[in-house]
Amino acid sequence: MRSLLAISAALFVAACAGIAPMAVPDQLAPPAGERLALMAAARGVQIYECRAGKEAGSAPQWVFVAPEAELIDARGRPAGTHGAGPYWQAADGSRVIGKVSARADAPTADAIPWLLLSTASTGKPGVFGSVSSIQRINTVGGLAPAAGCNAETLGRQARVGYRADYRFFGAATR
Question: Per residue of the chain (174 residues), what is the pLDDT tens digit?
Fold first, then answer.
């Protein structure tokens, strides 16, 4: 019984930590001089809104609005949140906003792209205070709906489930 509990706990931690890492494309490597500071899994939704096409006569389309996710540490504990901006906020109140620097298609066609983002601190000192780059890898789901956006559904939102692993990098210290 004890070994069954240990195995169950290990599987739970593995599930919360995300999928086994795949090879990360070269274009998503963090800048030279940065080291991995921490990792967190994200579980949540990608929010899309049905909007009119940008060009006259074009069909309505799903447009990305924001992510909304909980960050989970390797032990399966809540570690923070991820939301519109995009931002990542740790439980200690430290916070960074990100800007996409590079992207790569996910290894599977049914998942949002992998990203490298540069960041700026916008919160108080803490866990994310020295983060300067973030990788989003091992994505599952999160793509815009394939159907359901038309003249009758303009303004409607869709919340599409996704998972991802986030790797936070900061300047290497001696």
Answer: 333 333 333 333 344 444 455 699 999 999 999 999 999 999 999 999 999 988 888 899 999 999 999 999 999 999 999 999 999 999 999 999 999 999 999 999 999 999 999 999 998 999 999 999 999 999 999 999 999 999 999 999 999 999 999 999 998 765
Whether 27 maps to a domain, the answer reads no
Please check whether residue 133 is in contact with residue 124, taking contact to mean a CB–CB distance below 8 angstroms.
Answer: no
Q: What angle do CA 38, 41, 43 make, to 5 degrees?
A: 150
Specify the number of domains making up the chain: 1
Domain annotation covers residue 145: yes
- Domain membership of residue 28 (yes or no) is no
Buried b (16+ CB within 10 A) or exposed e, 55-71: eeeeebebeeebbbbeb
- Which of 53, 172, 39, 164 has the alpha carbon at shortest distance from 112? 164
- Asked, for residue 32, whether it belongs to a domain, the answer is no
